[in-house]
Amino acid sequence: MAEGVIDPADLDLCMSQGLGRRWAFIGPFETMELNAPRGFKDYATKFGGVYRSILDTMRVDRPWSKEAIERVEAWRRSELPAAADVVGRRLWRDHNLMKLAKLFRGPRLARPRA
């Protein structure tokens, strides 16, 4: 925010309407896995460079190591045995996101004023 990349209201909106809803019932690694045709390792391979460039601009020198990717991949396979099952899990996620969206379409809760 300090660099003017996004303003606070837009960041709140991104999190509450995007990742926040997903993370209500799945974590960041499963989110990544479901966003790639062949699972987490596929995601890490395709988007690792993007994350690296983001971390470079933030001056963070901690790239995703091959070992870290393999460890997450092994854990994901213990949770979802075949990457082919990603399609079914994606449908489950989308169904739950639609149910959550219905909840948010109800009356807006009034926010207390400061």
Task: Provide the fold topology.
Layout: H1 8-22, H2 28-34, H3 40-57, H4 66-79, H5 86-104
Describe this protein's structure.
This protein has helices spanning 8-22, 28-34, 40-57, 66-79, 86-104. It is mainly α and 114 residues long. Helix 2 (28-34) packs across helix 3 (40-57). The two termini are 23 Å apart. The mean pLDDT is 82.
- Would you identify the regions where 5 or more consecutive residues have pLDDT less than 50? none
Average pLDDT score: 82
User: Secondary-structure element order, as H and E?
Assistant: HHHHH
Radius of gyration from CA coordinates: 17 Å
What's the β-strand tally? 0
Strand content: under 5%
Shape, please?
A: flat
The tally of helices reads 5
Largest sheet: none
Portion of residues in helices? 55-70%
Helix/strand structural class = mainly alpha
What is the end-to-end distance? 23 Å
Concise structural overview:
By secondary structure, the protein is mostly helical.
Task: Sum up the structure in keywords.
flat; mainly alpha; 114 residues
